[in-house]
Structure formats: C-alpha cells, structure tokens
## 1
Amino acid sequence: MIDYRKLQSRLLIAIFPLLVLIASQAVGAAPSLKTFSDDIVLEQQSELMWLVKRSARLKIPEDVNEYLAGLNQGEYSDWRLPTKQELYTIFSLFDLKQNGDVKLRLEGYYWLADEKGQPYVGAWEIGDQCGPSRTFYKGKAGYIRAVRPSTNL
C-alpha cells in the first residue's frame, strides 16, 4: 500500500531546491538570511530565528532537553529543535548561495523534532549528483541549532 504522506514529503524534498532556485531568480536572488544580532540570524521567508552558535555534540535526549531549558531561561522562552524540513531549508539556502553575509557551521548531525515533537538525530549530507542535492541520514549523536519564530518578538 502506498503511504501518500511519505510520498508527498519525499517529493517536496526532491523538488524544494528547484523551487528555491526559481523563486530566487524571480526576486533577483536577494539573500534570505540576515544577521539579527551577534547570536541570531533571521531566515526571512519562514521568519524563523536561528542561533548562530551550535551546542556541543550531545548523545541523549535528556541532555537535549536540559540544553533547551537553559536557552529558554534567557531573553526568549520558545527556543526549540528544528524539524527535518526546517534544517533542510537552511542547508538549501547555503547551497544556493542565498545566505548573504551569514556564515554558519552546518556540517554534522543535528538534533531534530519529529511530527510529535520527539527528538532524534539526523544529517543532510551533500549528494554526488549534478547541482545541489542532499540525502538525509539518521544518527546517534549530534548538535543543537535551536530555532524560534520571529513573530513572537
């Protein structure tokens, strides 16, 4: 039996770089990332704020929860793990040179939130095909690059 949700998700992931490329050409290739502060960058299309600094490499969900709890004691209280698609979007912006003057260390595995908000580890590795393409791999330990909505300023 065909799982149409998985099929739809895979199709979206496969065509997303092309859609980003087309959209960037239509608007003159303006950068989608901009510096918000020394510690935060803003992804303008999704209006998500990303921490510039990533965590140390963490191995267990309890450490992930503790790290996020510490972040949420600061200026903002709604930092969370990105979804698989949100992380892919950030990678795509760098692949398509839509990062402007923003520099982030992206390589490696990251903690992500699944559809139920449960943490897991994965990485978007660069493919060997022509043009920007990435393949997702699950892992056992990774970094946190926390994200939050900028609409809650």
Note: The longest strand covers residues 119-126.
## 2
Amino acid sequence: MGKIFDWIDRRFGVKEPHKKFLQRPAFGMPEKVNYSYCLGGMSFIYFLMLVCTGLLLSMYYVPSEKEAFKSVAAITNDVTLGWLIRGLHKWSANLFIIFIMLHTIRVFVSQAYRPPRELNWMAGVLGLVIAMASGFTGYLLPWDQKAYWATEVGTSMFGTVPFIGDYLMRFVRGGLDIDGATLIRFYSMHVLFLPASMAIILWAHFHMVKRQGIAKSL
C-alpha cells in the first residue's frame, strides 16, 4: 500500500499540502491497553460492511408499497448470492450496534470521557443514537407484517411526547398512518441522511482520537 500511495503521490502531490492530516502526533501507547480498545475499530469495520452490502441491496430493492416485499423476496430467492448479501447486511447491523454499545461501556468504565475528550464522548453517543435510528428505519424496509406492526408500535411512542407528540408521530410516519409515504421516508433516512450523518460523526470522532491520542486506562 505504501508503494501504491507513493506512486500516486508522485503524480498528484498528496503528502506535501496535507501533512497535518496524514501525519499522526507521536503520543505513544498508554499502559494497560487490551483488546477492549479494539471495539471501536470493529464497529467501524461493520459500518463499512453495511455500506458495501447496502449499496448492493439498493440495486434490487424497490421502495414501493406494492413492490417492496416482492423485491426483498426476489433478492433472497432469485438474485445470485442475494441471500448472502442480505444476511451479511442484517448481521452486520446487529453487530454494529452491539459493538458500539460495548465500546461506549468501555469508554465509560475507563472514564475516557474526561476533559479534553468530552466532545469526543458526545460524538460517540450521538453515533450510537444514529446507529439505533438506522436499525429502526431499516426494520420497516422488508415491508412484511412483523416490520409493519413493529413500526406501528415504535412510531406510536412519539405520540406520547407532551405537547408535540402528535406532530412528531405525523412527521416520522409522513402522515397519520403507516403506508407508502412512511416506507419512502424510512428508506430515504436509512440510505441517505443517517449514513451521511454517521460518516460525519465518525470523521470527527477519529480526528479527535488522532489529535488527542488514546486515553490512559485506570
């Protein structure tokens, strides 16, 4: 990879104008670092798997009230290795959330949220919220009975918020009931807004880790 990057650099001159971005400050590794410090990296790997498998699934999925369920069935039964790609996407989503939660617990236990890393902690918690929202919006996309009624219950919870509950529920659903408008809204959030937000959060998270170094364990 180094030779390839040097070959590109001789033609585009990447290193010189981006030294601050490419070079990592020499902080050194703190003591008592163990495999639990790899939980964040594992979460990032599952995020990349979700992006890759999601792009492949989007080539065949039809976000339509009449065609969504049929397209998922076609992906599973007719498309070559479609069942594998869908399975990888499903399990990567579950493991992505699990590893983010484990990473959050590890950071909390080791008190790595203390200054000057409090902003990084906030970015990580926001990333967990986005991951949960991604899982919630993706759950409706197969458009079967289980997905429909789970979304019915989940979106109804927004209606319990004082004063603005009814407005929030209508906003999330795209109307009074769960229908094709809800499916389009969830699909848009799942493949556009939430992944883009997660990418920005991850960039900020990694940038702060790079600048501040790894927090010392207790």
Note: DSSP finds nine helices and no strands in the chain.
